[in-house]
Specification:
The complex is a heterodimer. Chain A is an alpha+beta fold. Chain A contains eleven helices and 22 strands. Chain A is elongated, with a radius of gyration of 33 Å. Classes of the chains: A alpha+beta, B alpha/beta.
Chain lengths: 431, 500
């Protein structure tokens, strides 16, 4: 039961009627009696909310920032026409528009409503409830009820670093020797034998085949294929900090997606481990082409947790996830206290078996603060920023001494830098 | 409304790396603001229209009704002139004449709005009736009649449409039809069922004649005559017991106005009622006095329709509440994301330095950072320094920097490896002095004439005894500028060696 603005307007007309009437008291009673009767009739003749049935169609996944058109079908199984206001309520971050649909569904018919979602957050978005208000023929009042029509839209990471993909793939082709450049491709895996051309390294001559063929033959190499890459995402408290407008975790997801796309093209297997104090997600490696979609899907549900990352646990997870020698890319923050107490002790077991890259995001705000000279406060802030930068530099040196590659880049080139490190290691045959 | 379409979850108002607050932007949406503007504009225009209308209507309706000097349609100058022509002295008044009229010279008093008079004035008028005067009350209401206690009350019965006198009053018979307009109508009090033919007696002391309208249930002219006149010598007229004073109740005085006086028998009735004595007091009470018999508050002055209308407005408000209060479903919860800027701890660190005036700490850090930066740029190896941080070899660094910048090694040495800031400034002209000069010439504010008293700030210095003897916090203003100067000097050196 709900009344509409029309009922209020009617009562407001009653004010004028009462004011000018010669018998105002009687008029008042009559006006309100009439109102009550009309409202009662309207409620009585309104279509039944219970007899409506809802169903949805539309996409179930989208990238962040892209709108999702969902169609909500309303079927009236009742005997009366339903003039309905329908609110298809989603959580605010789903950005559902319009807020209220107005639709007339005659008995036994079906109508389609379009709800446009514009999600503003990553993760799963589900509808909350469908509230229906069926107004009577006069539009004065109506019945209200609710329905449930479950659905789920998974909002995937936006993958904004996709524009860096062509450049990375071009470099990959160069490494693989697929482009017309002088010399063979880099790498250490034996590929084929070919005739010697002037300029080839004499150390590459395969003397046995040369003897067999009577012409000088060299061995051609190519980068190793079917290597293992493990993307390790630290989802602990440091990943919640926002650099620019986006949390560190989202920058890391973006970089991991680019790395995955390139590594898949290079024929490597990528697996994913997300961990803070407990493992959050694990996806074993694979080659297939749907893998990028699968990894996006897993990433969609990751959120920063306000807990300290357990680096020992992370290392254990990685060791569990892969048995062969792999490239372990650890997306984390170079917070001195955290790394010194957590990661460094556990690092030895990891570097003994795997090649480790620590990919950290540098905050441009630090550089901004470090050049502040407007007043004394700015100089103090600059000192604080310099101190942080020195600690990071120090930490980077420590990690490098232990045989860990460190990427420390601002957001603009972060994903590309991580992928470049991977390609460099691949071309050096260090995978 | 869902929990805030105004809630921006992933965006801040500032630029990508700006130092904006972490608070979320909330506030009304632009559409709501626009709607509010439109509504207020419409209300403003309506108020303006009302004011204009009020001014115009006020301009057309000037002049006091029933004013004996007024020639407007509502005025009564015509009647006054006629009466004067017949030898009647017309005296306008705003209060009841206080001096007792000498016995034997009765006059006529016509009172408009008798409800504005107080109880004493009304009983005084009634006394004048018993002394032989004529008193005409225009539009007397129940309150006035209750005070007078003459056995007449107002009637709710409908008036007949006929304007005939329908009574035996001589003046009425002479005048014939008179178009009375307006309420109230009068009838006899309930205690007195009334006699036939419009003539009856009340309390055995006043004779009542009901005329016009629909007597006896609803009359518009009532003449009450004292049954026993205290003054003798009058001739009996048309059945009235005495020729002395009489009390006349008229429902409205429209027939006295300039515009209506010549309609039907209006003039004849007016002359008959008002022209019996040689003096006529034309009493229009100025305003209701505090103890007026018919004193009413502002709410009572409103028509009853308005009062019931207010009740209906309450009903409307109730419905409005029901309408707006019934939402289309509850607000939807949103698990909020953590919003914390990554650089927040660094900024807090800087503020901590500033609030503790840890200038020496800041200076040391800035120096160390520049040392590392210069060493990397020049290509000197870093090795673990005394504090465990990587440091270049001091001698090599100072030598190469001095060579590249063309400055003396002692300058460079004190700049990169000096400690504190204040001591070298005024003692001897060194890099700090020059830097200070540069800073001053850049238009920094002059030194304050009175230094803040030392001591209070020193207690907060967290650097403790290690930093205190360096004297960086003896004079806060000067020390702050020294730190700024040091920072700029370091920047200069940085630039000279090829950075930035």
């Amino acid at each position: 039961m709900a009344i509409s603005g029309r009922a209020v307007a009617l009562a407001l007309c009653g004010v004028a009627l009462v004011a000018v009437s010669p018998a105002p008291g009687l008029t008042l009673v009559l006006v309100n009696l009439l109102l009550v009767v009309l409202v009662g009739m309207d409620v009585a003749f309104a279509g039944a909310v219970r007899s409506l049935a809802f169903s949805r169609t539309g996409p179930t996944a989208t990238r962040l920032g892209q709108p999702v058109p969902l169609v909500l079908a309303v079927t009236n199984h009742g005997t009366r026409t339903v003039r309905a206001q329908i609110r298809d309520a989603w959580s605010p971050s789903a950005g559902a528009r319009p807020r209220i649909h107005r639709v007339v569904v005659p008995a036994g018919e079906r109508r389609f409503l379009e709800t446009m979602l514009t999600p503003t957050r990553r993760g799963d978005r589900t509808p909350f409830r469908i509230t229906v208000r069926a107004l009577g023929p006069l539009g004065l009042a109506g019945r209200q009820g609710r329905h449930h029509c479950p659905w789920r839209v998974r909002v995937l990471p936006p993958f904004t670093s996709r524009r860096a993909l062509p450049a990375a793939l071009a470099r990959l082709r160069e490494i693989e020797g697929e482009v017309a450049v002088r010399g063979a491709g880099a790498g250490s895996e034996f590929d084929s034998l070919r005739d010697y051309v002037i300029g080839d390294d004499v150390r590459m001559i395969d003397w046995r085949s040369t003897a067999r063929r009577g012409a000088v033959v060299v061995r051609a190499f190519r980068p190793e294929r079917d290597r293992r890459v493990v993307c390790v995402l630290d989802t602990g408290r440091t990943s919640a900090g926002r650099v620019g407008d986006t949390p560190r975790l989202d920058h890391a997801l973006d970089a991991a997606l680019l790395l995955t796309a390139v590594a898949l093209r290079a024929g490597d297997r990528v697996s994913l481990v997300a961990h803070d104090s407990v493992p959050r997600a694990t996806l074993p490696g694979s080659h297939d082409h749907a893998y990028l979609a699968r990894i996006s899907d897993v990433m969609a549900g990751l959120e920063p947790a306000i807990v300290e990352a357990d680096h020992t646990g992370i290392v254990a997870s990685v060791l569990r996830a892969t048995s062969r020698r792999s490239l372990v890319v650890l997306f984390t923050e170079l917070a001195p206290a955290v790394i010194e107490e957590g990661l460094l002790p556990a690092l030895a077991t990891l570097t003994a078996r795997h090649t480790v890259v620590v990919a950290a995001l540098r905050d441009p705000r630090l550089d901004e603060l470090a050049v502040g000279r407007q007043d004394v406060r700015a100089v103090h802030a600059a000192a604080a920023a310099e101190q942080t930068r020195m600690r990071r530099r120090e930490l980077t040196e420590t990690l490098r001494r232990r045989g860990v590659e460190v990427v420390d880049e601002p957001p603009a080139g972060y994903a590309a830098a991580v992928t470049d490190t991977y390609l460099t290691l691949k071309s050096l045959g260090r995978l | 409304m869902i929990a805030g379409p105004n809630l921006t979850l992933n965006r801040r108002g500032t630029g990508p790396a700006g130092p904006g607050p972490t608070a979320l932007r909330t506030g009304p949406r632009p559409t709501a603001v626009r709607r509010g503007l439109v509504v207020s504009a419409v209300i403003g225009v309506l108020v303006l229209l009302f004011l204009l209308l009020a001014v115009f209507t006020a301009g057309t309706s000037g002049g006091q009704p029933f004013d004996v000097g007024s020639t407007r349609p509502q005025g009564t100058r015509a009647l006054a002139e006629i009466l004067r022509g017949r030898g009647v002295t017309v005296t306008p008044a705003e209060t009841v004449p206080t001096g007792n009229r000498p016995v034997g010279s009765p006059g006529t008093v016509i009172v408009f709005e008798p409800g504005r008079l107080d109880r004493d004035a009304l009983t005084g008028l009634l006394g004048q009736v018993w002394q032989g005067s004529d008193v005409v009350l225009v539009g007397a209401g129940d309150a006035v009649l209750d005070v007078l206690e003459v056995g007449v009350r107002t009637s709710d019965d409908s008036l007949g449409s006929a304007a005939a006198p329908r009574c035996a009053l001589p003046e009425a018979a002479v005048a014939g039809t008179v178009p009375f307009e307006g309420s109230p109508a009068y009838t006899r009090g309930r205690s007195d069922p009334g006699g036939a033919g419009g003539v009856g007696r009340d309390r055995a002391d006043m004779q009542v004649v009901l005329c016009y309208g629909d007597p006896p249930t609803a009359a518009q002219l009532v003449v009450l005559t004292p049954a026993v006149s205290t003054t003798s010598g009058g001739t009996a007229q048309g059945g009235t017991a005495a020729g002395g004073g009489r009390l006349v109740l008229v429902s409205s005085a429209d027939f006295l106005t300039n515009s209506r006086l010549d309609h039907d028998g209006g003039a004849a009735l007016a002359l008959g009622l008002l022209g019996r004595h040689t003096t006529l007091t034309w009493l229009i009470p100025a305003a209701a006095s505090r103890d007026a018999v018919d004193a009413r508050g502002p709410f009572e002055l409103l028509p009853s329709g308005v009062r019931w209308g207010v009740l209906q407005v309450a009903v409307v408000l109730l419905l409005l509440g029901l309408w707006r209060g019934r939402r289309l479903g509850p607000p939807v919860p949103e698990p909020l994301a953590v919003v914390v800027r990554a650089a927040e701890s660094v900024e807090g660190h800087g503020r901590l330095y500033a609030s503790a005036r840890a200038r020496d700490q800041s200076a040391d850090v800035l120096r160390a950072a520049l040392r590392v930066r210069l060493a990397e740029r020049i290509g000197l190896p870093l090795r673990a320094g005394p504090a465990g941080t990587p440091e270049p070899d001091p001698v090599a660094l100072v030598a190469s920097v001095a060579e590249q910048s063309g400055r003396s090694p002692s300058d460079i040495g004190s700049l990169l490896y000096g400690s504190g800031m204040v001591a070298p400034i005024d003692a001897r002209p060194g890099p700090f002095g020059r830097a200070m000069d540069q800073i001053r010439s850049r238009g920094l504010p002059p030194e304050p004439p009175v230094w803040p008293r030392p001591g209070t700030a020193v207690a907060l210095d967290p650097a403790g005894p290690a930093a205190a003897p360096r004297g960086g916090d003896r004079e806060p203003g000067r020390a702050d500028r020294a730190l700024l100067a040091l920072a700029h000097a370091l920047d200069d050196l940085d630039r000279q060696v090829g950075g930035r």
